[in-house]
Amino acid sequence: MSTASRGVHIGPPRLKIAIHAIVWLAKSGSMLSSAMIASQVDSHATFMRRVMQSLNNAGIVESKSGRDGGYFLKKTSTEITLGDIYEAINSFSNEVEVDVDCGEAGEQLDVELEKILHEAELKTIEYLRNYTVAQLMDRVQFVKEE
Fold this sequence. Notes:
CATH superfamily: Winged helix-like DNA-binding domain superfamily/Winged helix DNA-binding domain
CATH architecture: Orthogonal Bundle
Radius of gyration: 18 Å
Distance between the termini: 38 Å
Structural class: mainly alpha
CATH topology: Arc Repressor Mutant, subunit A
Shape: globular
CATH class: Mainly Alpha
Strand content: 5-15%
């Protein structure tokens, strides 16, 4: 089965949107509004502002307020790794945890499962740190805009 046809889902769903936003900022080389970024990545501007805020908090982008405001990269695309973006986006979570009462054995299972999932996440971040935004951009054939 081809993974390209079904997509790969690692990390929060907003990870891919955040990476796309950073690529568009890097590609533009200038400041872009949340509405402009949202239109480029096929997302809603309000959601995009929340994603950009977590990137801003992580020091990846900087924002300028006001009518002519927007976002710009605080670092170059060669300095930003996919792991940096993952960590920034993963710290922004509004997902609700669902507690299921499975008794004492279930609690022990949860504790051990959390340890394993935490280790998997650390290894994912470590792996993603091997790739910069610039390297990702080099792998993509962008259509020249006229």
